[in-house]
Write a structure and sequence with these properties.
alpha+beta, two-stranded parallel sheet, 2 helices
Length: about 80
């Protein structure tokens, strides 16, 4: 996790993932819970991530928690709003 200031992102919280491929939603959620425990009065402005950090469970979690996100996806991936 980083703090963005004047166009520069400075990392301040991270975790090492044991698996070699992309990780799983429960790991992402645990990371956000860790942030909330350390900084209980801070809000997350938004989450940015690369295309490895996708998945219905993870994105649904962000929506449920009202955390805005911008996640790069592959050209062949498709998103839709199930409420349409």
């Amino acid at each position: 996790m980083s703090i963005a200031y004047k166009g520069v992102a400075v990392p301040f919280l991270w975790t090492f993932l044991a698996n070699r491929s992309n990780s799983y939603a429960h790991q992402y959620k645990a990371f956000l819970h860790r942030f909330e425990r350390i900084f209980p009065n801070q809000n997350i402005a938004y989450v940015t991530a690369d295309r490895e950090f996708i998945g219905k469970d993870w994105l649904s979690y962000l929506v449920q928690k009202s955390i805005p996100f911008c996640i790069r996806i592959r050209e062949c991936d498709h998103l839709y709003d199930a409420q349409c």
